[in-house]
Design brief:
This protein is α+β, with helices and mostly antiparallel strands. The chain has eight helices and 18 strands. It is about 20% helix and about 50% strand. Strand 14 and strand 15 form a beta hairpin.
């Protein structure tokens, strides 16, 4: 296993190095609160709906899951700062502070999925947009990305040397649209937001230039379970996921034509490993059942980009409360460290409805403290 991991790291490093001069894309990944509440750690415990995005080996682990709808908005703004907004003046202060310190943004996803018997199929629309500035919103610019994606894959479950092992893979066809928010458009949009004129914001977005195109990604994953321990490995966007784009006005993205873009855009390959332990509490497990896990995520990105190893680290814990009431009712408390920053989350399940929330901070720079970006995320899902 050690030799395999070393080989994969060398392979992915070479592939990523060959693409350094090209344009990197964000992954096709909702900001799910059940994962972010645990510091982003999920490689060894992925299952159900989140396995579609985090580790295809999870298709063969855990219970079958049918997600009829997952509605998941998120906001890249410090929750305490957002709560301090009282009027236009305080809103301008918060916006300037957020833009210059770590960025300001918003996102959302709508998805559905079925995971059963090792099969995983699903789809989602993911919107993610951010603005950044150096001094204030007068020099801000950014990008908004909309991705329509489908995920289909399979995981095979084996017994190997006394361990339960799942090996999985999936295919991700995607159609992606970028709205390029130049400084002029961003300043006008911020002014319109402060005035509460959302119609003008929509008009500004329609005037933006857009890149539209198709990409097909591949994920590979493995999970091994031995007693109370789990270990996971996932390679997301194997060999990099490239997009073939054309350029056109955003208002014409549903129409044909456009100027072909010769530059290559890609989602870089991400190799992550993780482990988890289900802490046994004997008779107390019917009241509280804790799990602790840790991931090293984006190993190749740290090697290639020279980022601090601390940005690799994701540690989290989840306590499932009052298990004797399952499956009708359940409650979860989550906490963790995401790249050195505290995260916290809550979850609840009632009959076929899930409600989850989390507050988090992520690091957008190369070292902890360079460019921390805080936010909060919510999910309302209907699952069977």
């Amino acid at each position: 296993m050690r030799k395999l991991i070393i080989f994969l790291l060398l392979l992915t490093s070479l592939i990523s190095l060959s693409a350094q001069e090209e344009y990197r894309e964000v992954p096709f990944l909702p900001v799910l609160p059940d994962v972010m509440g645990m510091g982003g750690a999920n490689v060894a415990t992925a299952g159900g709906y989140n396995a579609l995005f985090y580790n295809p080996a999870g298709f063969a682990m855990g219970k079958d899951s049918l997600t009829l709808l997952s509605a998941n908005p998120w906001f890249y703004i410090n929750p305490a700062a957002a709560a301090s907004i009282k009027d236009e003046a305080s809103a301008a202060t918060v916006i300037n502070q957020q833009l210059t310190e770590g960025g300001l943004g918003i996102g959302a996803s709508l998805g559905l999925g079925l995971v059963t018997g090792g099969l995983g199929i699903g789809g989602a629309v993911v919107l993610d947009g951010s603005l950044y500035g150096h001094r204030n919103f007068m020099d801000a610019s950014g990008d908004m990305t909309i991705t329509f994606g489908f995920v289909g894959g399979y995981a095979l479950k084996l017994n190997l040397l006394g361990m339960k092992v799942a090996l999985g893979a999936d295919l991700k066809p995607m159609y992606r649209v970028h709205a390029e928010l130049t400084n002029e458009l961003a300043v006008q949009a911020m002014s319109d937001i402060l005035r509460g004129d959302m119609g003008a914001v929509q008009e500004m977005i329609n005037q933006a230039g857009a890149l539209c195109g198709v990409g097909i990604g591949i994920d590979l994953g493995a999970i091994a379970e031995l007693s109370i321990f789990k270990f996971g490995l996932v390679i997301q966007d194997f060999a990099n996921t490239g997009f073939n784009y054309v350029r056109k006005p955003f208002s014409e993205v549903l129409q044909g034509g456009g100027e072909e873009v010769t530059d290559r855009y890609y989602i870089p390959m991400n190799v992550s490993i993780g482990g988890a332990i289900d802490i046994p509490l004997g008779p107390l497990e019917s009241i509280i059942d804790p799990t602790v896990q840790a991931d090293l995520r984006d190993v190749v990105g740290v090697i290639v980009d020279g980022r601090s190893p601390w940005t690799l680290l994701h540690i989290g814990a989840e306590a499932n409360l009052f298990k004797f009431l399952n499956p009708l009712i359940s409650t979860q408390i989550r906490a963790g460290f995401n790249q050195g920053y505290l995260t916290f989350g809550l979850g609840g399940h009632l009959l076929f409805m899930d409600l989850n929330m989390a507050v988090f901070t992520r690091e957008l720079g190369k070292h902890i403290g360079d460019k921390p970006n805080s936010g909060f995320t919510l999910e309302l899902a209907f699952r069977l």
